[in-house]
Amino acid sequence: MRYKIFLIDDVKFNIDVIAEALKGEYDISFAMTGEEAVRCVHDEKPDLILLDIMMPGMGGFEICRYFKEQPDSKDIPVIFLTVLDSPEDKTAGFEAGAVDYIIKPFDITEIKARVKTHLELKSLRDVLEQRVRDRTLELELSNVRLKQEIAGHRRTMTALKAGEERYRLLTENVADGVFIVQNQHLVFVNPAYTAIFGYSERELVGKNPVFLYRQDYQEAFKEIYRLSENGERLVGQNRAAENFQAVCICRDSREIWTEERHSPIEWKDRPALLGTIRDITQRKLREIGIEKEAENLRSQNIRLLSSIGERYRLGSMVGKSPAIQHLYKFIVNAAASEADVILYGESGTGKELSARMIHDLSRRREYPFVAVNCGAVPEALFESEFFGYRKGAFTGAFTDKKGFFDLADSGTLFLDEVTQLTPAMQAKLLRVLQDREYIPLGTGKSRKADVRIISASNRKLKDEVLLGRMREDFFYRIHILSVTVPPLRERKDDIPLLTDHFFNSRGSALCYSALPGNIAQTLYHYQWPGNIRELQNALERYLATRQLNLTDVSDPEDMKKSPFASDTDCHFEKLRDAAKDFEKKFIIRMLEQNRWNRSRTAALLGISLKTLFRKMKAYRLNQS
Questions:
Q1: Domain boundary pick from 428, 457, 486
Q2: In terms of domains, do 405 and 504 share one?
Q3: Do 461 and 553 lie in a common domain?
C-alpha cells in the first residue's frame, strides 16, 4: 500500500523539491494556503502532513491545531518545516500537536528518513490499537459469560440453603471448584476443587486453605477468611462482589493461576464463606503474553523516537559522516570488551575524547579515567610517576605519592603518544601489563594493577618496531583492538555539526547556516592540518573578532599551498629572514595544535622551555 503525503507550503519551489524526492514512494498532494489545505485534507485523508509555519492567512500552528480538533484528521501525524529555530517556536509546534520539527534549509535525506519513521510509528500504533480493540471485545465477551456464571452460582446458593445433602448433590455436578471456609478452616470441598489442587477431600477438610496459595498472596487471603467470620462486615465492605486472582501451589508443586469469587453464607447457623474457584492458567498466560507484546511495541516506539534526535551524536562526540560512524561502532564494540586498545590519528583529531567515550560506555565507567602524556614523563622518573612511592623511598620523598596505576585503579589508563616511551620504559610497563602487579618505590609489597590500557599515537606502531624504537613484545601487548580516528579533512560533512556544537557550547546564538557565505566556504574547503582542535581555535577567534583568522591560510585560494606558505608571495633579501619567518609560523602552528601548552610544545619541538619562551617573546607570540 502506498501512503499519501500532503504538503502545505506557500513557496512552490519547496513543494516541488520535496514532491520530486518523495513521489517515487508516496502519493503526493499539496496546498499553498491554510484554507485550501483544510478543504483538501478532509477530502483526501492523507497519512502524513508536512506543514510550513509561516503561511499567509491561517498560520501553521493554527492549521495544525484545527486538524487535531477534527475527528477525521486528529490522528494524522504533522511534521513542521520551518526556518523558526527558537526553543519557544519548537515548544509551540509540539503543543499545537506536531510529532516532529525540521529546520529549513532542510536536508531532503533527513525529510525522507523522518517521514518513513513516523509512517512506521503510525503503522505500529494502528496495529496496537487494533489489538487493544480485539482484547477489549474478548474481555467484554468474557464479562458476559462471567455474569452468566455468577447468576448460576447465585441460583446454586439459594438451592444449597435447603440442606447440606441437596447442596452436595448440586456441587458434585458443577465444573468450578466449590468450597466453604468456617473458622478459617475448610469444612466442605467439591470434587472439582480437589481435582484442581490434586489433594483428596480428606486431606483438605479441616485445614486452613492459606497453604494452597503462593506466599506473596497468603496475607490477602488470611484477611478475607478472617472477615468471613462476620458476614455483615464482609458484605458491608463489598468484598462479596469482587473477583480475586492468585497463584496457587498444587500438590505436585506446579504453580497455577486461579480466579475466585466469595460470598458470606450461614453454615449450620454460623457465619461462613462460600467460594468458587477455577483454573485460569491458560487464559492468564495469554493475557501476560499480550501485555508483553504491547510493552515490546511501546519500547520499540520509544527507541525509534529517541534515535531520531541522537543519530548524529555519541556522548560528547558529534558527527554523521561515514568515517565518524565507523568510529562510533568501534567505540561501542570496544567498550563491551576488556581488551587493550590503540587509537591512531593525527594531532587534534580527538583521540583522547574517543578514549574517554570507550571508558564512559564500559563497565569501568564509575571508576577513574587517567590520561598520561608519555612525552612529558622523563625516563628517570618513570617508576615514581607510574608506580608511585612511599615516604623516604629516596632523597626528597617527604610524603607518599600515588602513581598513575594507583590513580586509575579499577578504571582506565590512557597513554597518549605512547611511542614517546623509551624501550627501557616499555619493558617496565610490559611486565606490569603481563603480571598485573607492580611495586611502588620504597615498599617490598606488590599491588594489583586492575586497569584497562588505552593507548594513542600519531605514528604507526609497526613502523616504530621496524625502526627499533618500540619493543615487539610491547607492541603485541597493547595492539589488540585498533582504529584510526579520522582527520577532519576526511569528514568535512561534520563541519556544520561541529561548528553548531561549538557555538552552542559557548552560549552563542550563531550557527553554521547563518555564517557569511565566504566564511562557511572557507571553513569547508580548508584542509585543517590541526583538525578539530584547530577548528575550535579558529571559531574561538571568530567569536571574539568576527574575523576568520586561520593560522595557515587567508583565503580559499591558498588552501592547497604548503601549510607553511606565506599568504602572499614574499621575497626575502636574505636567507636568514626567510628562516625566521618559517620558524615563527612553525612555532605558531605547534602552539595551536597543543592548545598553547608551552611545556608540551617545547618537548615536541625538541627545545627547552626557556628557549621557547625566548623565541615567543622575540616573535611577540601571545594566545589570542
A1: 486
A2: no
A3: no
What are the DSSP E strand ranges found in 201-331? 243-249, 255-267, 270-279, 313-314, 317-318
Phi, psi of 166 (to 5 degrees): -65, -40
Angle between helices 351-361 and 322-335 (to 10 degrees): 40
532's CB contacts (< 8 A; 6+ apart) are 348, 349, 350, 488, 498
Do 50 and 32 contact (CB within 8 A), yes or no?
A: no
* Alpha-carbon span 137 to 143, nearest angstrom: 10
Helix 60-69 vs helix 34-44: crossing angle, to nearest 10: 30
How big is the chain by its Cα radius of gyration, in Å? 38
Please give the pLDDT value at position 311.
Answer: 60
Do 519 and 602 have their domain in common?
yes
Q: Is residue 180 part of a domain?
A: yes
Identify whether residues 395 and 539 lie together within a single domain: no
Question: Residue 356: is its pLDDT beyond 80?
Answer: yes
For the segment 5-47, what is each residue's pLDDT rounded down to a tens digit? 999 988 888 889 998 889 888 999 999 988 888 888 888 889 8
- Pick from 81-85, 187-191, 466-470, 565-569: least confident: 565-569
What is the predicted pLDDT for the residue at 419? 93
Quick one: CA dihedral 289, 291, 295, 301, positive or negative? positive
**Angle of helix 60-69 relative to helix 87-96, nearest 10 degrees?**
20
pLDDT the model gives residue 241: 41
Residue 232 has pLDDT above 60, yes or no: no
Give the CATH number of the domain where residue 191 resides: 3.30.450.20
pLDDT tens string 97-141: 888 888 888 888 888 888 888 888 888 887 888 888 888 888 888
- Is there a single domain that holds both residue 549 and residue 475? no
pLDDT at 444 over 70: yes
Indicate if 272 and 390 belong to the same structural domain.
no
- Co-location of 539 and 405 in the same domain: no
State percent of the chain over pLDDT 90: 26
**Are both 408 and 504 inside the same structural domain?**
no
Q: Could you identify the residue written with the cell 445433602?
A: 165
Query: Please, where are the H alpha helices in 23-160?
Result: 34-44, 60-69, 87-96, 108-160
Angle, helix 531-545 to helix 495-505, in steps of 10 degrees: 50
In angstroms, rounded to a whole number, what is the distance separating the alpha carbons of residues 534 and 524?
13
3-class DSSP state of 100: strand
For the segment 73-86, the average pLDDT, to the nearest whole number, is: 87
pTM of the model: 0.44
Q: What would the pLDDT profile of 594-608 be if each residue is shown by its tens digit? A: 778 888 888 778 888
Task: Give me the pLDDT at residue 573, please.
Answer: 47
Beta pairing class for 27-31 and 437-438: unpaired
Which residue type occupies 280?
A: I
Quote the domain boundaries for residue 578.
491-619
Which CATH number characterizes residue 344's domain? 3.40.50.300
Provide the domain count of the chain.
4
Q: How crowded is residue 617: how many other Cβ atoms within 10 Å of its Cβ? A: 10
pLDDT of residue 78: 92
Is position 342 within any domain? yes
Residue 129 lies in a domain: no
Residue 602 CB partners (closer than 8 Å, separation 6+): 608, 609, 611, 612
Indicate the residue among 226, 261, 279 that finishes a domain.
Answer: 279
Is 332 inside any structural domain?
yes
Cell of residue 501, nine digits: 556544537
